[in-house]
Each structure stands twice: as C-alpha cells, then as structure tokens.
Amino acid sequence: MAEISHFEYGWITPALSYALSVLGSVLGLVCAGRIRTASSSRQRAWWGLLSAWALGGTAIWSMHFMAMLGFAVPGTRIRYDVPITIASTVIAVAAVGLGLVIVGTGRLSVLRVLIGGLFTGAGVAAMHYTGMAAMRLDGSFSYDTLRVVASVVIAVVAATVALWLAMTVRRPLAIAGSALLMGIAVNGMHFTGMSALSVHLHPGTGEVAGAGVSTLLTPIVLAVIFVLVGLVYALIAAPTEEDRAATAYLDARASAVGPAAAPPSPPDPVGLRGRSTLGQPGTPFPSRRTPPPPQG
C-alpha cells in the first residue's frame, strides 16, 4: 500500500478549497433566495439555474478539484481523464438543480426538504467519487466501505441543511453564517471520502495517460472567475424588492393623477366669448375700410 499525502502544498489548497466553498455558498444562497420571490416561472428557472451553478459548480465541484491539487502519491505522477472530470461537473450542478426544483416549487415542507436533500446529497457523493475515478496513476485504488458510507451520510445531511437554508435564510448576516457552515460540511465530506482511499502502486506498467494538473488548472480557474463575475453581475443588475415597490408606487401615483389637464381659459364674465363669431369656421375676417370723404 502506497503512502498518500492530502496536503502536498501545506495549508494553501485546503484554505483555497474552503474559500471557494464559502464564496459559492454565499452566491448560491442569495440566488436561491430570489426563487420564491420571483414573479414568473421564467425568473424562477433563471435564479434556480444560477443557484445550481454557484452551489454545484463553485461551492462543491471547484472546491473538490482545488482540494485534489494537494493530493499526491510518492512514486507516481497523477493525471486526470478530461471527459470524466467534465462529467463530474455536470453531476454536481444537476444534483443541486434537482434539489432546488424539489424544494423551490410548491409549498415548502419538511418532506420536500428531506427528499431534495436525499437526491442532492447522493448526487454530491456521486460527483466526488466520479472525480476520484477520473484520476490516473501507476497503480490501483481501493476504498474503506465504512468511510465511504460516512461520506455519503455527510453529503446527504449537508445537502439537506443547504437546501433548507437556501429557502429560508434572507438576512445578510445569516447568509454569511450559513455559508461558513456549508463550507465546513462540504470540505468535511470531501476529506472523509478521501480518507477512505488506498492506493496500490504497480510500477513499470507504462506511461500514465490523461491531463496534468497544470493543464486543467488554467481553464478551471478562468471558468470559475467568469462564473463568479457573471453571478455577481446578475445579482447587482436584478431589481430588488425595494425597486419593485418604488416602481409600483410611481405607477399608482401616475394612474391616480390621470392625463394632464388642459390649461385654464381666461375669465369671460359677460359672455362675450360665447356670442363672438371670430375664429369660427366660415366666418370671414372683417376687412379694414377707409371712411367716406366728408360732404360739401
């Protein structure tokens, strides 16, 4: 059995993985909070998609890959199968999206949260072990069953709590505290699953195929940056409840005032305007006549 190092670069990779999970959780919770306040099904779908990308793509999958950068096995190089790595991303986003659909449509209930947490947690665990299966090295893997089960239980519990928080938390301080707890839960699930892994080296079996860490790191970092910038822009550009209330207030005032009134006419106390024919259609304008010459 080979020796395994989970912190090849010290505290840098776990610190960055925790920061990514907290940041993704904050954005995901804020986006999820817009789902139930959205005024149309199209807006609910839009905010649900953004929340799934933030939670599944950033808080879970990006955190997983960042933590994997610190994983090393002395005596062999580690490569990654790109299609399987991409599949793990899709699984993470789809799992969170499914959970948000379950709890975000219809009346919120304990049963909905439990069912959504079960599906989402199972998806998160599937993402983790799919990402592990993407690793290529000069050896084979084996897992401790008890620790695998423990990691799945942690994933389900963390997903259930995350969905409940996503549908109930609204205040900024509560969102920040919830994101910190979610970061601990996601990282705890990851490193519990990693502790279940054992590696058996088979040296001399040939060149290890796959993409190296440096090859995958650049596009992943760029994708994370673009996604985060897009999410922040969407949150800033979206109208808030105060904006909607102000717009409704202005519309109500405009409806109450009605069309602009005509300018008032000058007073006509003796009714000359009513008896006058000047300016009416068909009335000739009086011409100026020269007075007749005097007689004699």
Automatic annotation (TrEMBL):
Q: Where is this region: Disordered?
A: 257-296
Q: Does the keyword Transmembrane helix apply?
A: yes
Query: Per the record, GO CC terms?
Result: membrane
The family database entries (InterPro entries) matched by this protein are listed as: MHYT_dom (IPR005330)
Q: Give the residue spans that cross the bilayer.
A: 15-33, 45-72, 84-103, 110-128, 148-166, 173-196, 216-236
For this UniProt record, the keywords arranged alphabetically read as follows: Membrane, Transmembrane, Transmembrane helix
Leader sequence segment: none
| Highest taxon, organism lineage | Bacteria
Keyword Iron among UniProt keywords? no
Q: Where is the MHYT domain?
A: 9-200
Name the PANTHER family for this protein: DOMAIN SIGNALLING PROTEIN, PUTATIVE (AFU_ORTHOLOGUE AFUA_5G11310)-RELATED (PTHR35152)
Q: What is the recorded name of this protein? A: Signal protein
